[in-house]
Design goal:
This is DUF1918 domain-containing protein. This protein has about 70 residues and is mainly beta. The protein has 1 helix and 5 strands. It has one domain.
Length: about 70
């Protein structure tokens, strides 16, 4: 998994009824776009995250084309 600043991380809900959680990558702390990432939640909180298999990256360039 590789991400850049401005990309979105989508953590899919693991159980029925649990919503996806979308965060923005504000800093890439690993080498060459690899985790960990500092992310910002919609409410402004920030955290360091090493995404698991339930996450996907939505790249900034792909979001701008939509």
């Amino acid at each position: 998994m590789r991400a850049s600043k401005g990309d979105r991380l989508v953590q899919h809900g693991r159980v029925v009824g649990q919503h996806d959680q979308i965060t923005e990558v504000v800093e890439v702390m690993g080498q060459e776009g690899n985790p960990p990432y500092r992310v910002r939640f919609p409410d402004g909180r920030e955290a360091v995250m090493s995404p698991g298999p339930d996450c996907e990256v939505r790249h900034r360039d792909d979001l701008q084309q939509q």
